[in-house]
Amino acid sequence: MSYVDGFVIAVPTANKDQFVAHAMKFDEMLIAEGALRVVECWGDDVPPGKVTDFAGAVKATDGETVCFSWVEWPDKATRDAAHTRMHARMESGEIPSGTTDMPFDGKRMIFGGFETVLELGGKP
């Protein structure tokens, strides 16, 4: 089964267009590195929780929107190799300017890699 990287971030609501443009550039690189698909979601119905919630997880403030994204890889080996190549490209400066300038506070991003254990339904 596939392997998934998941992300939750707080983006200044006024930066929506910059976020989409940034995501497009970065996500195209992920696809070129072997990702099967990348999905970027802009928070629309993200209610507060009683104990914890998405906004609390990323310390979202007034004027920020919670965004949820994921990258689907064919397997963990493909993902790990792509991450190694992308980090090397970032460190060398090979990735063009503007693709690493995030229109959000990356320090509050939560992320992780997940092994798929169950998948129902087909691709839309």
How would you portray this structure in words?
- The protein is globular and about 35 Å long.
- The model has no long low-confidence stretch (mean pLDDT 91).
- 15% of the residues are buried.
- The protein has three helices and four strands, in the order E-H-E-H-E-H-E.
- The two termini are 18 Å apart.
- The protein is an alpha+beta fold and 124 residues long.
- It has one domain (3-115): Alpha-Beta Plaits.
Write the layout of secondary structure elements.
Layout: E1 3-12, H1 16-32, E2 37-42, H2 54-57, E3 64-73, H3 76-92, E4 110-115
Antiparallel strand pairs: 1-3, 1-4, 2-3
**Shape, principal axes of CA atoms:** globular
CATH architecture term = 2-Layer Sandwich
Number of strands: 4
> Which structural class do you get from the secondary structure elements?
alpha+beta
Major sheet: arrangement of strands: 2-3-1-4
Q: In whole angstroms, how far apart are the ends?
A: 18 Å
Strand content: 25-35%
Name the CATH class.
Answer: Alpha Beta
Approximate helicity band:
25-40%
- How is the main sheet built? 4 strands, antiparallel
What would the CATH topology be?
A: Alpha-Beta Plaits
How many helical stretches? 3
Integer average pLDDT: 91
Overall structural domain count = 1
Alpha-carbon Rg, integer: 15 Å
Low-confidence stretches: none
Order of helices and strands: EHEHEHE
Structure characteristics:
124 residues, 4 strands, 26% strand, 4-stranded antiparallel beta sheet, globular, alpha+beta, Alpha-Beta Plaits, 3 helices
